[in-house]
From TrEMBL, chain A:
GO biological process: peptide transport
Source organism of this protein record: Streptomyces spinoverrucosus
UniProt cross-references to SUPFAM superfamilies, sorted A to Z: P-loop containing nucleoside triphosphate hydrolases (SSF52540)
Organism domain of life: Bacteria
Keywords: ATP-binding, Cell membrane, Membrane, Nucleotide-binding, Transport
Domain ABC transporter positions: 7-241
Classification lineage: Bacteria, Bacillati, Actinomycetota, Actinomycetes, Kitasatosporales
Membrane topology: Peripheral membrane protein
An MF annotation (GO) of this entry: ATP binding
Primary localisation category: membrane
Keyword Signal included in the entry's annotation: no
Entry protein name: ABC transporter ATP-binding protein
Subcellular location: Cell membrane
Gene3D superfamilies on file: P-loop containing nucleotide triphosphate hydrolases (3.40.50.300)
Pfam families reported in the protein's UniProt record: ABC_tran, oligo_HPY
TrEMBL record, chain B:
Entry GO MF terms: ATP binding; ATP hydrolysis activity
Source domain of life: Bacteria
Protein name, per record: ABC transporter domain-containing protein
Family in the record: Belongs to the ABC transporter superfamily.
Native source organism of the sequence: Streptomyces spinoverrucosus
PANTHER family given in the database record: D,D-DIPEPTIDE TRANSPORT ATP-BINDING PROTEIN DDPF-RELATED (PTHR43776:SF7), TRANSPORT ATP-BINDING PROTEIN (PTHR43776)
Stored SUPFAM superfamilies: P-loop containing nucleoside triphosphate hydrolases
Lineage, opening ranks: Bacteria, Bacillati, Actinomycetota, Actinomycetes, Kitasatosporales
């Protein structure tokens, strides 16, 4: 396991008007790894990813550290693959020009060299007749080709970290798999780590080395994806997995009782306690801190008692 | 026995492009038929043609034994409430300016089944039926979560007392646990009311779990199922 972290996040807090949305998150991004950030809408996973990129909304206040701060080198050392491929490309410039501009913004190369690099990048992501397609505009690309062009854009400067924010949410199952595979190949080719924000647990299973499960702005569980997905140690992870149709035992699927707390209206103690079948008085008063267990870190007082069946058992018939 | 819905050799064209090419399938009462396939395969065009929201170019759509494609708009009017769509984007399918209560009441009013004594009770019942506290009726769509909004959309569809729901990616935008809750709700409604579902979904795991039968489409044609 590579020991040196490419990026170290320590006690990251992100607040909007005194309401904390990310509440003290610490994790590393290791060289060349795929780290998935998962959790419900509002868990803070996208904000965390945006913080790595230095792309938080202006009214956000942050504390904690992200070292080194790659966001000063955004576009070169750290890049973004956004959810919407169309919005990532300018409609008024040929795709090849946009890629060439991305190269010239960070490297001293001639226009001609930049163009050649752009064509090579489009070719690498499998765009047929790349030299000709480089002169086309985004609207002349199919949806799938646009996704490819965006991946080419995110990897052309050989960054250390690629952040992909729900890159496949709008796509059908087949194209999701294609995009993730291509993203995986490309970031491997340039030696970049990938931070993948997703709520698709199948994508995590198929593509992630490690997974950071977030709940209400905090880490529930962080560890090797294969372990976390097969033997969850945080009750929230167990609930998330139990609700997947892949695990269904009958027609009714287990669900997490209740709803996630609103930021700013958090219960005392563990934020998940009101929804947790294992919660004790301690959980309701003392917020659990991340601690090592079974080759991962988990924030739960009852982690030793968690099994994937937790929510299947409490489910009424 | 006549199936609830019987689609025969359905064709939908947009200009020279054939979006749906001789697609046939039945959906029985109390049964879920999934339509699966990549973007652009013709799933949603099939759904719109079944609902007669886009009149098909050829083929037949038999609903409760009646052929719909030859009916006029006026003749379709009493039939439309019995086949209701539920769409993917829970926010987009409810007017942002109307309270949830009004969105659910609207079909009752349009169909002349509203009166001021029973109407509000009926709306409260429908909200309760989909697992929403009736107090949610006072809220606007943006004050609801994605899952709650999708439940409100289902309540609105139920207001018409449908026999068939055409569900176009109804859970694709939802988080896993919320998605599970909405799928459970749909399963309960089907068990209790005997609804037929035409269930459009690209997630194979959801299809395997939820559907009685599935057909797969590609480039407008049924390729398996």
């Amino acid at each position: 396991m590579p020991s040196e972290a490419l990026l170290s996040v320590r006690d990251l807090r992100i607040a909007f008007h005194d309401v904390e949305a990310v509440r003290g998150l610490s994790f590393d991004v290791r060289p060349r790894e795929v780290l998935a950030l998962v959790g419900e809408s509002g868990a803070g996973k996208s904000l965390t990813a945006r913080a790595l990129l230095g792309m938080l909304p202006r009214d956000a206040t942050t504390s904690g550290t992200i070292r080194p701060d790659l966001s000063a080198d955004r576009g070169r050392r750290i890049t973004l693959v956004p959810q919407d491929a169309l919005s990532a490309l300018s409609p008024v410039h040929p795709v090849g020009d946009q890629l060439a501009a991305a190269v010239r913004s960070v490297r001293r190369v001639t226009r001609k060299e930049a163009r050649a690099l752009a064509v090579a990048a489009l070719d690498r992501v499998g765009i047929p007749d790349a030299a000709r397609k480089a002169r086309s505009y985004p609207h002349e690309y199919s949806g799938g080709m646009r996704q490819r062009a965006v991946i080419a854009m995110a990897t052309i400067n050989e960054p250390d970290v690629v952040v992909a924010d729900e890159p496949t949410t709008a796509l059908d199952a087949e194209r999701q798999e294609q995009v993730l595979r291509l993203l995986g190949e490309q970031r491997e080719a340039v030696g970049a780590a990938l931070v993948l924000v997703t709520h698709d647990m199948e994508a995590v299973r198929a593509h992630a080395d490690r997974v950071l499960v977030m709940y209400a702005g905090r880490q529930s569980e962080l560890g090797p994806a294969a372990d976390v997905l097969t033997r969850p140690r945080a009750p929230y992870t167990a609930g998330l997995l139990a609700s997947l149709p892949q695990y269904a035992r009958g027609r009714r699927l287990p669900t997490l009782p209740g709803t996630p707390p609103a930021p700013g209206a958090l219960p005392p103690g563990c934020a998940f306690a009101p929804r947790c079948p294992l919660a004790t008085d301690r959980c309701r008063t003392e917020e659990p801190q991340p601690r090592p267990l079974d080759g991962r870190t988990v924030s739960c007082h009852r982690a030793e008692d968690v099994t994937i069946e937790l929510f299947q058992e409490v489910q009424p018939a | 026995m006549t199936p609830l819905l019987d689609v025969r050799e359905l064709v939908v064209r947009y200009g020279d492009f054939t979006a749906v090419d001789r697609v046939s399938f039945p959906v029985g009462a109390g049964e879920t038929l999934a339509l699966n396939g990549p973007s652009g395969c013709g799933k949603s065009s099939t759904a719109l043609a079944v609902l007669q929201l886009r009149r098909p170019d050829a083929g037949e759509v038999l609903f409760e034994g009646r052929e719909l494609t030859t009916l006029t708009e006026r003749e379709l009017r009493p039939i439309r409430p019995r086949m209701q769509p539920v769409f993917q984007d829970p926010y987009g399918s409810l007017s942002p300016r109307h309270r949830i209560r009004d969105a659910v009441a609207e079909p009752l009013k349009v169909q002349g089944r509203w009166n001021d004594t029973d109407g509000p009770t009926r709306v409260a019942e429908l909200l309760d039926r989909v697992g929403l506290d009736p107090s949610y009726g006072d809220r606007h769509p943006h004050e609801l979560s994605g899952g709650q909004c999708q439940r409100a959309g289902i309540a609105r569809a139920l207001a018409s007392e449908p026999r068939l729901l055409v569900l176009d990616e109804p859970v694709s935008a939802l988080d896993p646990s919320v998605r599970a809750g909405v799928l459970n709700l749909l399963a309960d409604l089907q068990d209790d009311l005997g609804l037929g579902y035409l269930f459009i979904c690209h997630d194979r795991a959801v299809v395997r779990h939820f559907a009685d039968r599935a057909i797969e489409m590609r480039e407008g044609r049924v390729t398996s199922g």
